[in-house]
Amino acid sequence: MKAHSYQIEYTELSADELPEAVQSLINQAKEAAEKAYAPYSQFKVGCAVLLANGTILTGSNHENAAYPAGICAERAALSALDMTPAAPKVLQLAIQYVYTSVNAASSTSYITPCGICRQTILEVQQWQGTPIEIYMCSPNNHVLKVANANNLLPFAFGKDYLQSDAQ
Q: What is the pTM of this model?
């Protein structure tokens, strides 16, 4: 048996240390979170996606009493993405959350994408062939940054597993 390790590169910082454009992206993610539909968990998540042409796409989580029918903020935002060859690439993605219950308002935990969202973000990164910077935020201005989606899903499943030799 041979043991291996995997290192994930990330940066922890305050939102105040980020460029103004990234702070704006995080604020747009927060605004999207405030529009979320989360009557069951009270956990509202928003995502803002910056495209190379300056367009910003946003999305929020939408819960459903039939739990699998809900959608996460990241996938809601990315579902509006034009994935044709001439489409602008995704440069950055910011995720923010708000709790609607008073006792959780001072949380310092970062919001990280769920497994399905990690796979979705990575799929977009693989499709476009360039890294996506990801900013995972807490309500009190703490930010965890990764330079690309590979750091979120080190042993990712990808299109190479689905291509047959006949193609």
A: 0.91
